[in-house]
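Lab manual, section 2.4: Encoding a predicted structure.

Procedure: take the sequence of the chain (181 residues), apply the prediction step described in section 2.3, and record the output as structure tokens. A sample record is shown.
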Amino acid sequence: MSAQRKLIRNEAAAILSGQIPEIGTRVYTSRKKALFESELPCIVVFSSGEPSPKILSDGPREYLRTCNLKFEVATQGTDEDSVEDELDMLAHKLEQIFFRNDTLNSKCTGMTLGEVNIGFSVEGRQITGVCAVNFDATYPVDAPDPTEDNLPAFTSAGVEIDAGPEPDAVPEIAAEIALAQ
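Recorded output:
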């Protein structure tokens, strides 16, 4: 089974591909891709990290994870204002696509818009602009994954009861119960 982050990243790229006329199918899922002038404008999609997950339930353990999904929109031109205007327009179109499909066709439970940052690089007369649009995609996961066949057999259950008048975290009753197989 693929990691859910990869499924989310690939689905986001597939949704974008062909949806923004100025970008066409120039949507890439690797931030290590060298971008050439002929490939601009384009969008590079990658996951930039994941904060600590939240516990949804303890038995069985289920986490709510958040994938920080980053979309870097890149373009080039000779005038900083027109490059910035194009980045703003492309970022707006990207945002609107995900506002309409915030579950990425059910690959996550929802996405929320995060930071948007714009930067420029100048080489001679050529100005390259990049607008980083960040979304947080949330999704639940079971731990351990019940689809993997590596769980030990459930043959017994431990029971501990703190029966004293004051809770002291010392069980007065403890038992290991063998389960019928």
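Check your result against the sample. The chain has a mean pLDDT of 88.
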